[in-house]
Amino acid sequence: MSELPALPVTFRPGRTRAVLLTAGVAIFVVITAVALLLEKLGPGERLSFVLTGALMFGVLAMLARVKVVVDESGVTVVNIATRRRLDWAEILQVNLRPGDPWVFLNLSDGTSLPVLGIQPGIAKQHAIADARALRALAEAHAIKEPEDREG
Prior knowledge:
The chain is an alpha+beta fold and about 150 residues long. Helix content is about 40%, strand content about 20%.
């Protein structure tokens, strides 16, 4: 097994984040420029353009906020609109199967939690390495059941 990353560690889709934030800024700037350059717009209409650009930037920023923060006591999964803290004992399995849009955690309560902070979209090899590191950390911190003894 490879060496575990030093804790705390944060996994996030860096390239995807850069693309989303850059696109958000560009959209906001273009829409604001259009609002200022159109001479026939009134102040309310200009404001509505700027607010629309800000709303679009806000949506892209929410998409860019996804991450997974791992420390000694557990994992914090930050998805688009939710944040969930998990103890190590709650994580049974870390999955990233071919074709999956992101990592899934199988949890002790029988549910599965999507982890958008590790997604193979733009940087597939980086996501695979992050998924392996998270899997290794989960296995290293798992509560081991005592083996059955005969006799």
